Structure formats: structure tokens, C-alpha cells
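Protein modeling request. Please complete all fields; requests missing the sequence field cannot be processed.
Requester role: graduate student
Desired output: 3D structure, C-alpha cell encoding
Chains: 1
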Amino acid sequence: MTNEYKNKSDVELYQLLAGKRKKARLAFDELYSRFSSNIYAYCLKVMGSEDSALDVFQETFVRFYSSAKKEKQMNNVGGYLIKITRNLCLNEKAKKYRDMLPLENLQLPVYNNNYDNKQLVDLLQTAIDDLPAEYREALIMKEYMDMSYK
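Delivered output (150 residues):
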């Protein structure tokens, strides 16, 4: 790698990713050398296993490289990489939980003590059903399965 790329800022290198193939490759290599160890450490800490961390790590840099063709301007390359990594980690962890608990088959207990309680339970069930899946799952796991929000 030439000194020319080592002396460029992260923002300049990111802009080069959208250019010609050879320059884009050299710019990517330099950005990779600057950020890869921190990104991998983050993946490993969040994912907990080396295999999962490697999957997220690789996907992070694939998406990062692809984004350079779409994004017009970048002010914080390191922050952008962490944002991609964090989202991928969260998605991967959520996917594992979705696979463990099919919410469609979960029946919540209904107590028929009186009309007011039944009406309240029906109202709560409707509200829970209207929540986005990630929030619904977290609420059900916390309130009905005595799990923590973490």
C-alpha cells in the first residue's frame, strides 16, 4: 500500500470507494487496516462466539463497501462502521430468539373473574398483538416468562 493512501483521511478514503476499482480497493484496504481490529473486538464481545462474530464482522465490511456506491457524503467513517456492526449484531441476536419462541403459538392466560377483568384482558391482548414483533416478544418474555429485558 502506498503512503498516498495512509496519509488520506477516513472521509477521503470513503469517497474513493465509489471510484475506480483499483483506487477503491486500495482505499478499502487502508480503511480495513484502520478499523478491522476494533470492529472484530466489538463483534466478539456482543456475539459471544467466534463463529457468530466472524459472520457479523464479514457482513459489516461487505455492507460498508456496498454503501459507498449509494452514500454521497460521510463525516464519521468509524461511527458508521460501528452503526452497521451494532445493527447486524442486534439482528443476529434477535433472529436467534425468534427461532426459539414462535409467538403465533403462544397462548396467554385469560382469567374470567368478572366482565371488567375479561374486558381488560381482551384490551391488553389486542394491544400486545398490535405491537411490532420485537417489542411484543420482549414484553411477553418479561411479563409472562419472568425473563429480563436483556
